[in-house]
Amino acid sequence: MTNARVQEKRKESSLPSFIKPASILAGSSLFAFAADQSSKYLALTHLESHSRTLFLPPLLNLFLTTNTGAAFSMGTGSPLVLILASTATLFLIFWAIQICRSAKPDRLHLLGLGLTIGAGLGNICDRLCRGQVTDFLEFAFIKFPIFNIADVLIDLGIAIIIWRSLSKSEKHERR
After folding, report:
1. d(CA 140, CA 31)
2. pLDDT value at position 13?
3. Active-site entry in 106, 126, 151, 155
4. Is the model more confident about 73 or about 108?
5. How many Cβ atoms are within 10 Å of 88's Cβ, its own excluded?
6. Is residue 135 flagged as an active site residue?
7. Per residue in 71-81, pLDDT tens?
8. 31/26 Cα distance (integer angstroms)
9. Could you confirm whether 126 is annotated as catalytic?
10. Is 97 helix (H, G, I), strand (E, B) or coil?
């Protein structure tokens, strides 16, 4: 077989162009969901409720609690929280699909979206299955609401999206 024929065969058998970006999105979402759910499982099975455990002194303690609100216990007791969280997660999924299908998908945007979507789904899963979200991470050096891995990954995902958007707009302005 000639070299041109081999390359043509590779093109025929290659996956559609959006598959690689979709795998970044799916992989980061799955990672975030699994990290969130497994850490909550460990917290629920190994920590006593409302009992403080030193974890990384002087930075972080473990303190098992639950909340019915959004991140950092905002909106506690409101069913609107679940509706807003679900709507926001669906919006992010549709946005991510559009990025995957674009001519030049931004892989860092997809990573940030994947982390945010997977972690958001983890908290939604808690609300649907347990009626509340399990929180267990507490800053030891500052008064701050108790949070979980999903909250961390949502914040990280949003930070990546913002950073990438700002760096792209700076490049565009320089031209």
Report:
1. 27
2. 44
3. 151
4. 108
5. 16
6. yes
7. 655 656 666 76
8. 8
9. no
10. helix
**What is residue 15's DSSP assignment?**
P
- With tokens 């991510």, the residue in question is 96
pLDDT band at 93 (very low <50, low <70, confident <90, very high): confident
- Dig out the tokens for 59 from the structure: 């930075």
Element (H, E) at 137: strand 133-139
Query: Considering 36, 106, 126, 135, which one is annotated as catalytic?
Result: 135
Largest CA distance in the chain: 70
pLDDT of the residue at 2: 62
CA distance 22 to 70: 28
Q: How confident is the model at residue 175 (pLDDT cuts 50, 70, 90)?
A: low
Q: Does position 5 have pLDDT exceeding 90, yes or no?
A: no
- The mean pLDDT value for 132-158 works out to 94
For the CA atoms of the chain, what is the radius of gyration? 20
Phi/psi region, residue 131 (left: phi>0; alpha: psi -120 to 50; beta: rest), is left
Contact 94, 74 (CB under 8 A): no
Kindly report the average pLDDT of the chain as a whole number: 83
Q: Identify the CA nearest to 139 among candidates 61, 53, 50, 73.
A: 61
Q: What is the dihedral of CA 165, 169, 171, 175, to 10 degrees?
A: 160
Q: Phi and psi for 121 in degrees, rounded to 5? A: -65, -35
Q: In this structure, are residues 111 and 158 in contact, taking their beta carbons and an 8 Å threshold?
A: no
**CB-CB contact of 36 with 149 (8 Å):** yes
